[in-house]
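Example protein as discussed:

>
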Amino acid sequence: IPARVRLVEHLGRETVFYADASPLKTSGSDTGTENVTVQMPQIVPLSNDAAVTIGFEIADVYLFGPDGRTLTAHKPLQAI
């Protein structure tokens, strides 16, 4: 999915970034936007406005409805 990075946060050993990936969007985002949130388990050198391609394993995705309730089955916690 093509996307444009809007905000990057380097948090210890991981990187979280928010990207515009229309037509995907979040519901009730903490950022006040409709950005997609991506959590990477390592530090990734990204900058604001960078063009990226987002891909994912369907088994790792959490989907939520407009009311905030999860639409995906419960997943067991995994140690990192």
Remarks:
- The beta strands are 2-11, 14-20, 36-40, 51-53.
- The first strand starts at residue 2 and ends at 11.
- The mean pLDDT is 76.
- The CA atoms of residues 4 and 17 lie 10 Å apart.
